[in-house]
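Hey, I'm writing a tutorial for new members on how sequence and structure tokens pair up, and I'd like a real worked example in the thread rather than a made-up one. If someone can provide the structure for the chain below, I'll link this post from the tutorial.
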Amino acid sequence: MDVPTGMGQITMVTYEGDQGLLPSFMFGYLQPFLSSTIIVMDYETHGGHNGYWDNSWTGSTAITAENGNTFIKTNASLNGWFMNCNHQANGAPAPVITNIENYVLKFDIRIDAGVTGAENAAMQVIFHDAWHWYGTGLFPPTTGGGWITISVPVSKLSLTGTLDLSSGTYGLNGGPIPAGVSIDNLRFDPK
């Protein structure tokens, strides 16, 4: 479980010392929520907040439900808003997080088998109308068709002090993101 998420290979070593590499594959797993997890965006209904309000403004995504889970998925190549929310002032719950440098940003991602190019998407993370550049590599090249959790140090986004999400727009923006990329549970967890 301590292996970083990403592409990698395993070296096989025989008793005689011969070595060989297995084909590359994705290392990663889906991390559970903690009692201290702060959910920012998810697509299930919480209180008066319906996750369907957070659909992209691009028309290239669909809110999708599978096996009791609801998430957002690209249904066409996308350049622009992937996840967005700008309705906190209308009663949607939104956190105010003090000492944000003590947290890690996380989200769950699934890339359908056969989809290529997700790692090339140049992305920005938006919180309280402030745009934080990440660049390429936020998404892995593959997840093997399963869900994994991505962790981003908040220092990579230059977040410090208090992060107030009670107003303004927030989400993920960038591209090009290929069809077949799904995201869920944008959240903060303590380090």
